[in-house]
Amino acid sequence: MTDTFCLTVNGARHVLPHPEDRTLLDILRSELKLTGAKYGCGMAQCGACTVLVDGRPARACVLRASRAAGCEITTLEGLADAETGALSPVQQGFLECEGAQCGYCLNGMVMTATALLADNPSPSREEIRAALRHNLCRCGTHLEIIASVERAAELMRGGAS
Fold it and tell me: How far, in Å, are 6, 36, 53 from residue 153 at the CA level?
């Protein structure tokens, strides 16, 4: 066993102490100070900890950090343009349509919607609902969340700001 391992997060390579059996969420929040992904349930049930691993949504609260080595990890912080700070279309859509109330679900909704729109730039409402079905929203802002994803899709297609 080596004393270190590497993670590529938001395009940057990080050499870190070997994680033993620590979760990716713990490494992201404690070691890298990336706090967009939240600890919610700790059982991969709520979606608050969602990150993208090689472009696919993954629950960082149960994913062992060592399993993510060699993968491209994207967190909420990695979605905005690093040079200009401009929000991603999904982040902008959520901002414009007020797709969050308490913020508990926001990270998971944004990350899952980002993956959805990468695969399907024009999803139907049913496809949006299906993609987000495993992300828990306690405030009940489901209509605003769906509108946010629809707005993000419009922005990605070059819709007016």
Answer: 34, 22, 21
Q: Which two tokens stand for residue 71?
A: 């993968």
Angle of helix 142-156 versus helix 89-96 axis, rounded to 10: 140
End-to-end CA distance of the chain: 51
φ and ψ at 130, to 5 degrees? -65, -45
Q: What is the mean pLDDT of residues 91-117?
A: 94
Rounded to an integer, what distance in angstroms lies between the CA atom of residue 116 and that of residue 133?
12
pLDDT tens digits, 30-74: 999 999 999 999 999 999 999 999 999 999 999 999 999 999 999
The dihedral through the CA atoms of 84, 89, 91, 93 has a sign that is positive
Distance CA 132, CA 157 (A): 21
